[in-house]
Design a protein that fits this description.
There is one protein chain. The protein is of the alpha/beta class. Helix content is 31%, strand content 16%. It has helices spanning 20-26, 41-53, and strands at residues 3-4, 14-15, 35-37, 61-63. Strands 1-2 form a two-stranded parallel ribbon. 8% of the residues are buried.
Length: 64
């Protein structure tokens, strides 16, 4: 799910911050799955916290 906080005027995808609700909807915890995400360091820390609270193992989360 591509989400931009500040997309250009031509961006037609999702806008805004990534929330726990959005992650539950689009990244439910599943066996043999992983989550890949990129963005600023502070976003990575927030994502790791939210996903960990939702039950994801840290070994299944990858940020770059």
């Amino acid at each position: 799910v591509h989400t931009l906080t500040h997309g250009s005027d031509s961006w037609t995808g999702r806008r805004g911050f990534i929330s726990g609700e959005l992650l539950q909807k689009h990244a439910p915890v599943e066996e043999e799955s992983m989550v890949l995400f990129c963005g600023p360091e502070v976003m990575g820390k927030i994502m790791m916290k939210i996903l960990g609270e939702q039950g994801w193992a840290e070994s299944d989360l990858f940020t770059f």
